[in-house]
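This section describes the prediction task in plain terms. A model, or a person checking by hand, is given the sequence of a single protein chain and must write out its three-dimensional structure as a string of tokens. No templates, partner chains or ligands are provided. The sample shown here is typical of the held-out split.
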Amino acid sequence: MSSRPPTTDSETTPFWQLDWCVSDDSNTVVSTDPWRIEVSIAANGDTLTVSLNETLSIVATDRSSLSVPSSLDGHPGSTN
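The expected answer:
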């Protein structure tokens, strides 16, 4: 049994219920000349960071996972 919470379905969840969509907390201005912004979307221990240019075209993506040490996840010897 997984200790992760249920996922959010971004196709059926109204956008106003998605924090990354309605809050500036997940947005970072990386550069103003040229314009570059990053939007980080976190869910279930994973984070997707999307880098956008001045025309809002995607110029890079990065996906990372939060690793939980096996001693903290409640399952001795597990590696997630």
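For orientation: Helices lie at 19-22.
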